[in-house]
Write a structure and sequence with these properties.
β3, α7 and β4 (274-276) form a beta-alpha-beta unit. The protein has helices at 5-43, 56-90, 96-100, 105-152, 163-180, 210-226, 252-268; strands spanning 184-191, 201-206, 237-244, 274-276. α1 (5-43) packs antiparallel against α2. The chain has two domains: 5-122; 163-276, Reverse transcriptase/Diguanylate cyclase domain (Alpha-Beta Plaits), CATH 3.30.70.270. Strands 2-1-3-4 form a four-stranded mixed sheet. It is 63% helix and 9% strand. The protein is rod-shaped. The protein contains seven helices and four strands; from the N terminus they run αααααββαβαβ. It is of the alpha+beta class.
């Protein structure tokens, strides 16, 4: 049916064009020609030559011209009525099928219209399906990127966040400290007696002063020292604490370095202790 639509439209278009041309000829061109003939024959001719001329011919010509004009007007009115009727029927969705069953110009146009509408609807369904698939693929890509990002921020063995993630979060909290003057603390811990293992851990404490960070670190120290490990040996840890605004640190690296120096001060003081950054690295 879709392949016949252009031919139906062409045939209907040619029919309408012939009817319009006929209507224009009868209603417009023919009267002008008759008027021109009458003016030339009876107006510009010498008055003496008109004597004895039978005017019934002129009256008949005028009468048939009037009939032609009426016929042309009727054709134009009929075309307008058909178009108006088609518009009214198009506004009623339930009549579209009935219009397609007609054999006149309206039926041919409706067949073409229905065919084109069906094609457009099919293409719209395909576009919506493609858009849904594209949206699903985009969401899947977002999930994959989030997983990759999370994987890049975590240690493969322990599952804890790695140094890269810690550095980014520390930069964010230092920026927040500079804007709002909210305290931020860094705690570093290292297990005592494991020189061959790189076991240093870092803890970022937001909205926490140096005193609060030292108390937090000391609680962890006590838990580690009293925990009954399966190997039966005692394990201890040393801690270093640095904070803003208590300590001088222009960058995140400076704050981290201050905590690291405090950690090794706790190691030198006998291990299993908490040391805070400062002039004398206070040890508890």
């Amino acid at each position: 049916m879709a392949s016949d639509a252009p031919q139906d439209v062409t045939v209907v278009g040619r029919r309408l064009r012939r009817r319009v041309l006929l209507a224009l000829g009868l209603f417009g061109v023919l009267p002008v020609l008759v008027l021109a003939y009458a003016v030339h024959r009876y107006v510009f001719t010498d008055v003496t030559a008109l004597r004895g001329v039978n005017l019934f011919g002129l009256q008949g010509l005028a009468f048939f011209t009037l009939l032609a004009m009426i016929g042309g007007a009727w054709i134009i009115w009929d075309i307008g009525r058909a178009v108006s009727r088609m518009g009214e029927l198009l506004s009623q969705k339930s009549n579209v099928t009935a219009l397609g069953a007609r054999t006149d110009e309206v039926g041919a146009l409706m067949k073409s219209f229905t065919s084109m509408l069906t094609t457009i609807e099919a293409q719209a369904v395909e576009i919506n399906t493609f858009a849904s698939r594209l949206d699903a693929a985009y969401k899947e890509l977002e999930v994959t990127n989030a997983r990759l990002k999370e994987t890049s921020f975590r240690d493969d063995v322990t599952g804890l966040y790695n140094r890269r993630f810690f550095s980014l979060r520390l930069e964010e909290e230092i920026s927040r400290f500079r804007r709002f003057n909210h305290p931020v603390s860094v705690v570093l811990l290292d297990l005592d007696g494991f020189k061959g293992v790189n076991d240093e851990f870092a803890i970022l404490l937001v909205e926490t002063s140096k005193a609060g960070a030292r108390l937090y670190a000391d609680r962890i120290r006590q838990v580690v020292a009293t925990f009954p490990f399966s190997h039966g040996k005692n394990v201890t840890a040393s801690f270093g604490v640095a904070s803003l605004p208590d300590d001088e640190a222009a960058t995140s690296e400076d704050l981290f370095r201050a905590a690291d120096e405090a950690l090794y001060a706790a190691k030198r003081a006998g291990k299993n202790q908490v040391a805070a950054a400062g002039p004398a690295e206070k040890v508890t």
